[in-house]
Design goal:
18% strand, 8-stranded mixed beta sheet, globular, alpha/beta
């Protein structure tokens, strides 16, 4: 695998941005198999949580090693404390990550596939909300979405005080009471209903939250909602093993999500 640390200009954010990219490489390294073939690469858009940045997945998991036998490219952007949203008092991170970043990556790395069947999105905590929000806003663009340790986060009543969530909500959404966002483009319930009604091909949803996580109740609320759709159109699955809001949990469950995405195993 090859690791690229990219620094370039974003129109949406109005300045320089940084993101990490892992690309399949045919040559194998010590203890890591190389990817076979040189066709277009399927892509995982992998999102970080609050207080983190674009380096966190490669620093605290072995994501490069996990994707090596899959021939899977991984793009890891930075989104600050934006909740993957076009902020009221800040920058347009939703537009950047959902719209502009794929264009940038495919221009710089032409072998990244643009086919919806070969694109996947996932994230933890704030990035879980972001991955589900992006996938539901553009349901025809992704084959699967994975989320860990969050639910419809605008309705989470149990966020620890150190996150200063009222201040963040005002900065991001322009409201201090997130329940005012019900029925808007920030509400996963609203987006899921619209996606089903759109007739678009819907991505499969993989959702996991540890039973000791402060986000567990919020995750259960999203579970109940997603399972309320007749026929399970999102092919939604939920996992609630013992676990907390921790990298031990996310390291385990990113591997389990990768095992479910529709790729031919290589090597």
């Amino acid at each position: 695998m090859a690791l690229f640390q990219v620094h370039c200009v974003s129109r949406a954010l109005g300045g320089d941005v940084s993101f990490d990219v892992i690309l399949p490489q045919r040559a194998s390294g010590v203890g890591v198999s190389g990817a076979k073939g040189d066709a277009e690469h399927p892509v995982l858009w992998l999102l970080h949580g609050a207080t983190d940045d674009h380096t966190i997945w490669r620093r605290r998991t072995a994501i490069e090693r996990y994707v090596a036998p899959l021939g899977l490219a991984v793009v890891m952007p930075a989104a600050a404390l934006s909740s993957y949203t076009d902020m009221v008092y800040g920058k347009d991170y939703f537009t950047y990550i959902a719209e502009e970043l794929p264009e940038i990556c495919r221009s710089l790395f032409p072998k990244m596939s643009a086919e919806p069947a070969r694109n996947f999105i996932a994230g933890l905590s704030m990035g879980c909300y972001g991955a589900f929000k992006i996938a539901l806003s553009h349901p025809g663009r992704y084959a699967a979405a994975g989320g860990f340790s969050a639910g419809n986060s605008i309705f989470n009543r149990n966020i620890p005080a150190f996150f200063d969530i009222a201040k963040r909500n005002m900065t991001v959404f322009g409201v201090d009471n997130p329940f005012a966002l019900a029925g808007t483009e920030h509400d996963l319930y609203h987006l899921a209903k619209a996606a089903v009604l759109s007739g678009a091909r819907l991505p499969r949803f993989f959702h996991a939250c540890g039973s000791e996580d402060f986000a567990y109740g919020n995750a259960l609320e999203l579970k109940a909602f997603m399972e309320s759709f007749p026929g399970n159109p999102f092919r939604y699955e939920f996992h609630a093993p013992p676990g907390s809001h921790s990298w031990e949990f996310w390291d385990e469950w990113i591997r389990k999500f990768l095992a479910t995405i529709p790729l031919e195993r290589q090597g």
